[in-house]
Amino acid sequence: MEISAGDTAWVLMAAALVLFMTPGLALFYGGMVRSKNVLSMLMQNFFAMGLIAVVWAVTGFSLAFGDGGGFVGDFDFTFMRNINVLDADGFLVNQLPGLEFLTVPPVAFFAFQMMFAIITPALITGATADRLKFGSYAVFIALWSILVYSPVAHWVFSPTGWLFKRGALDFAGGTAIHINAGMAALVVVALIGPRRGHPNHPMLPHSLPLTLIGTGILWFGWFGFNAGSALAANGQAAQALVNTGLAASAAMLGWLAVERISGGHATTLGGASGAVAGLVAITPCAGYVSGMSPIIIGALAGIICYFAIAIKKALKLDDSLDVIAVHLVGGLVGSLLLGLFANKSATGFGADGVFFGGGADLLINQVIAVSATVVFSAVVTFLIAKGVDLTIGLRVDEESEDVGLDVSLHAETAYTA
């Protein structure tokens, strides 16, 4: 295979940017929990960087990108076998099915996708904040990564996946990452129940400056997340980068506008949440839209995700940090709007949506993709979480929860008097 030094450099840099998003997510979530649980939140996110990387190398990558059929990959790449293969002349041989066009070494693609696998289960921690046993969390995300994330990633990212073959589009993870993790969050919080004292006692963020720093890191890293998904230093990457910034900006403005109108104040937490909602919504669309489309998508995401916070109240769920509203709903908004706003002439990739003369075919495929992801994630997540709960228990005891997870689970405190 012919390797491009420029493309390789960009994908490696993008992989580093995506990894940096996980510490950013830790700060984003960490600032929103109470001070007695901040280290626990940081630890859960950082721990995912260690555990899921190993899981990905052992079997996750193979299940996501092996040639096992439309539903899940095979075991050809387990333990990192057959990823870096040289021919008799010492040239790399790309054995990734359907990805022969890559101009980067297969191991660079492995690394980039590994960062996606790491951050996806970490997203769930915002919904379950203050309640999970650390050991149970570790078992849950390991199983979830193998049994839920890898199959759905195969469906939409692998050319052999059934949704990919149908023509459903997901540039950087609207279905595989955000809808998938958001639906899992909904299921787990329904299973474990609310925090002690919720909703009668206020549980306010202990450090909004930490949350805003985390937002900035996420926004910065998201350029690698989306533009890196072009897998080359080309025009599609440039378009994805521009779309990412515009959507986040428009979503922040949309969220703040409705927050100001409905509540009387534009808050810093609202600004951070709105920006992330826009980043989530543009993720599936980033390489397939252009012009004013990312601004429209972002603004709609900011407004819709703001009002989607009412979902947890209607369902009486204690989604601590609004993962359902931002990630599940934001992913749904972006994935479905792509069926309307996709414009193949923008980058030469993808398909045309309803508004650009493509008819309803893409929109139908997007509906099928999000529906399949919601159902699969809900069912398998429930089975995993219920199994962990019945064996070792998911939730800490009442005393540990009252004391705070930092002390009870980790014997540490974030702040000293």
CATH superfamily: Ammonium transporter AmtB like domains
CATH topology heading: Ammonium transporter fold
- Beta fraction of the residues? under 5%
Shape: globular
Strand order of the largest sheet: 1-2
Please give the domain count: 1
Summarize the helix and strand pattern as letters: HHEEHHHHHHHHHHHHHH
Helix content: 55-70%
Number of DSSP strand runs: 2
The CATH class turns out to be: Mainly Alpha
Poorly predicted regions: none
Structural class: mainly alpha
Mean pLDDT: 97
Radius of gyration: 20 Å
Q: Based on the coordinates given, report the CATH architecture.
A: Orthogonal Bundle
Q: Tally the helices: what do you get?
A: 16
The profile of the biggest β sheet is: 2 strands, antiparallel
- Terminal-residue CA separation: 60 Å
Kindly describe this structure.
With 417 residues, this protein is an all-alpha fold. The protein has one domain (5-410): Ammonium transporter fold (Orthogonal Bundle), CATH 1.10.3430.10. The protein is built from 16 helices and 2 strands. The chain has helices at 5-30, 38-65, 106-123, 134-157, 162-166, 174-192, 208-227, 235-263, 268-282, 293-308, 310-314, 323-341, 344-347, 361-391, 398-403, 405-410, and strands spanning 85-86, 92-93. α6 (174-192) packs parallel to α14. The relative contact order is 0.15.
